Amino acid sequence: MELRPYQEEARAAVEGEWEKGVQKTLLVLPTGCGKTVVFAKITEDQVRKGERILILAHRGELLEQAADKIRTATGLACAMEKAEKTCLGGWFRVAVGSVQTLMREKRLARFPSDYFQTIIIDEAHHCISDSYQKIFSHFGQAKLLGVTATPDRGDMQNLGEVFGSLAYEYTLPKAIKEGYLSPIKALTIPLKLDLSGVSIQSGDLKAGDVATALDPYLYQIADEMKKYCTDRKTVVFLPLVKTSRKFRDILTEQGFKAAEVNGGSRDRAEILEAFDKGEYNVLCNSM
Q1: Which CATH class is domain 200-218+232-286?
Q2: What is the enclosing helix (H) or strand (E) of 98?
Q3: Dist. CA 26–CA 12, nearest whole Å
Q4: Which sequence spans correspond to the domains of the chain?
Q5: Burial 197-229 (b: 16+ CB within 10 A, else e)
Q6: CATH architecture of 5-177
Q7: Does pTM surpass 0.70?
Q8: Which end of the chain has the least Cβ crowding within 10 Å, N or C?
Q9: Cβ–Cβ < 8 Å for 262, 239
């Protein structure tokens, strides 16, 4: 698989940081710009050097996506380190691992501290949590690459506690200008939303307060969606799970084929697949 120019620049920049002795570095690419392809190629480069690589993620579908993309882009098969599945004793040089599994002390204790020479963290803005830090501490000599979509300023400050450098950043405006992403078109709807009672938490609007302010307008939003969204797939982001579920029900009343997913949905994979196949035309979720 041939990389796009910015992907090749990102690959070279990350490996250049490691060569300079910066063991922990960060790569920032907007959603849709192929970050998984980039770290797949970086993985391939490290395997050629005889290394073992661990790809870490916090959701099952991310692990499966990473394994599929690595196989497609490089031909490398991956072992799975999740629940009862383990990479120990296998021939594969690449493992995709669940943070929830590997953070457990008994699980980590099975691995020599030098078992992995490189760790790649997908959606790296999550890695400041204690669960990730336990894993990093155990494999203390491994090189780290964190990969994320454009983080906000607060994320960057926090990520600086983990990573020693920002190897490469490809911005959303540049991706649009160079034709790799579609231009963003915004349509506002005529709501006079009263946010005077919404407080600020960690530099952002408090989700619970936003949900309370938004609740009286959900039917009006659904009416506006009927004007613009009946013939296209739509994803709706809402502040809370209960708000997302309520809006799904409202949309269903209005004739949409709506579904709802959240971090705790046990049928998450099935719903996403059904949405991909067109069985649903609206997907509601909480931010």
Answers
A1: alpha beta
A2: strand 94-98
A3: 13
A4: 5-177, 200-218+232-286
A5: ebeeeeeeeebebbbebbeeebeebbeebeeeb
A6: 3-Layer(aba) Sandwich (3.40)
A7: yes
A8: C
A9: no
